[in-house]
Amino acid sequence: MDISEVAKRAGIAASALRYYEKKGLIASLGPEGARRQFAPAVLDQLALIALGQAAGLSLDEIQAMLAPGGAPNIDRRLLASKAEEIEQTISHLQAVARGLRHAAACPAPSHAECPTFRRLLKAAASGALDRRREGPAAMPAARPRKPNSRSRA
User: Fold this and answer.
1) Which pTM value belongs to this model?
2) How many angstroms separate the Cα of 27 from the Cα of each of 35, 54, 60?
């Protein structure tokens, strides 16, 4: 397949293919300087690159998981670590979303009177909302409370 066909099938720019080739992620067939031709297996390699990027892996990390010739050589520990990092980010974002939902629906007359909203402000001021790698422990509990007769927030 020539470079334009690979670009069309993979849905990426030809310039990205040339960059991936320069980085050693994929290899073209034939002599240098000629119009780039690729084996059909390059589409699987490009899919692996796209999956790695979607998971947040760098191109260097992805390249390390491609054996010469483009066959996968998966680093299971790296994948497990990345999965844990993604789960921590999800947990962090869920806590932020809970806090935002509470702030949007808080029955307190003013957000300044809401203990949950004040905890969110304190967490934001201390930088706890930015520390994704620390996981959910960095975020104070921000679960909406059900109103009762004793509490307004």
Assistant:
1) 0.65
2) 13, 22, 16
